């Protein structure tokens, strides 16, 4: 075992308070992050993805959701990038189909999430219904129209939300 010599002892004595301070600061930051995440999990997590009898995959309540709240409040904040169909034409057909399924589009403009298509917001899986239980609000938020039971599928009316007629 190597002995600590006097110069190393002095260096250790000088560095130890810095390391201790940084470690304490890190622990406080992690504690704050944990508290915020626990609050989010307790107050804002209401849904999961599941097999939908309506259309492939859907969003389902994992517990009762009160009327008048955003059941899909996400910690991910992103904007959409607007592309013309012309700008996207060089993409593989399978990717263009994915964009058609999951991205909002109007005429020649496709709204693609800036986070890309490998990390998606659960709201992309909301299925269409003429008797919806959520509505789309400006800015990308949603609001429950009534209390929603645990296990119930969360749906929205695409026609009202996006001003188009959707036929399935």
Question: Your description of this structure?
Answer:
This protein is α+β, with helices and mostly antiparallel strands and 168 residues long. It has helices at 6-44, 85-88, 93-102, 158-162; strands spanning 47-51, 57-61, 80-84, 104-106, 109-113, 127-128, 134-136, 142-144, 153-156. The protein has 2 domains: 1-43; 44-162, Beta Complex (Beta-clip-like), CATH 2.170.270.10. Strand 7 (134-136) and strand 8 (142-144) form a beta hairpin. The model has no long low-confidence stretch (mean pLDDT 83). The chain is built from 4 helices and 9 strands, in the order αβββααββββββα. It starts with 5 loop residues before the first helix and ends in a 6-residue tail after the last helix.
């Amino acid at each position: 075992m190597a002995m600590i010599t006097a110069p190393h002892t002095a260096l250790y004595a000088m560095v130890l308070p810095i390391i201790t301070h940084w470690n304490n600061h890190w622990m406080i930051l992690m504690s704050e992050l944990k508290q915020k995440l626990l609050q989010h999990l307790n107050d804002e997590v209401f849904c999961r993805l599941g097999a939908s009898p309506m259309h492939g995959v859907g969003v389902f309540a994992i517990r009762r959701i009160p009327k008048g709240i955003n059941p899909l409040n996400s910690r991910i904040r992103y904007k959409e990038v607007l592309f013309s169909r012309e700008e996207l034409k060089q993409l593989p057909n399978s990717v263009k189909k994915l964009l058609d399924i999951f991205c909002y589009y109007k005429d020649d403009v496709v709204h693609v999430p800036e986070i890309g298509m490998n990390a998606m917001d659960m709201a992309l899986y909301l299925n269409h219904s003429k008797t919806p239980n959520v509505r789309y609000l400006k800015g990308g938020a949603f609001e429950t129209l009534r209390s929603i039971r645990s296990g119930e599928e969360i749906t929205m009316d695409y026609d009202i939300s996006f001003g188009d007629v959707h036929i399935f």
